[in-house]
Prior knowledge:
Layout lengths: L1 E4 L2 E4 L10 H5 L2 E9 L2 E2 L2 H14 L8 H14 L5 E8 L17 E8 L4 H6 L1 E7 L14 H12 L4 E6 L2 E5 L3 E6 L2 E4 L10 H12 L4 E3 L4 H5 L3 E6 L3 E8 L2 E2 L7 H18 L1
Parallel strand pairs: 7-8, 7-14, 11-12
Antiparallel strand pairs: 1-2, 1-6, 3-4, 3-5, 5-6, 8-9, 10-11, 10-13, 13-14, 14-15
This protein binds pyridoxal-5'-phosphate (PLP).
The site of pyridoxal-5'-phosphate has 13 residues, from α6 and β13.
Amino acid sequence: VKIIYNDQIMDKNKVQIDIEDRGYQFGDGVYEVIRIYDGQLFTAEEHLTRFFSSAEKIKIVVPFPKEQLLRLIKQLINENKVNNGSIYMQITRGASPRNHVFPSAETKPVLTAYTKVVERPESALENGVEAIVADDIRWLRCDIKSLNLLPNLLAKQQATEKGCYESILHRDGTVTEGSSSNAYIIKDGKVKTHPATNLILNGITRQVIARLCDENQIPFYEEVFTVDELLAADEVFISSTTSEVMPVIRVDGKLFSDGKPGQITRKLQSLFLEEIKKMEK
Length: 281
Ligand code: PLP
């Protein structure tokens, strides 16, 4: 199986990562995940733009242009013969004797990427999932897709231990997003999600959903909402690259629309599916 190491495609077992790689020691890097449907990348341009932007926000310079990375990724998907799956990529500030201070300019960033086979979570998409509410204990730059995911992992683990799929996070009662997803409520026909500030990751799926709402006259508001509003919503859903438009049928024991995915959520799911199909043509 092949992977990307900097600007090359290589055998996975030929790649070595230094124990003083700053990604390994400090989480000093950023990452991205792009979905592959039927051998094709979905919203690749948006993901690559965010990858470059996340890197720039922490002052890592990706050592080659977006177009070259896209070419490499497409080549990797072909060589690994991935039909339905995803590609994970990350870039770290490189390997250098351990020191909090950034290394000198000669230290080269380390970029790695690999493919994975993933099927669509069809039964969860059909039946919906359960979530809990948890404290958002993350830093104040959640707009950066940073390798530092400890608070997200703790929140996800908390949900898993309660038999749930996701933790919906809040800061002082204001819902921000999920531990690895964006979060939405629907009340009286209106879709609401946290504005794209420093407190959330502006999901690519979120941006697709915003456009689909706009194109289909579904009222969409980027407005903050509280945990109380979440629990009083008509419908709740989350979104991400791998979860797509995922209905949430229960939060902290509170059931929504009789435990079935709501009508507007269903509509958004079918619009999203059309987007995938369009791309595959
Ligand atoms: N928010 C967080 C914290 C995430 O980790 C993710 C994705 O994994 C998202 C939101 C959704 O982003 P996207 O739709 O680009 O996958």
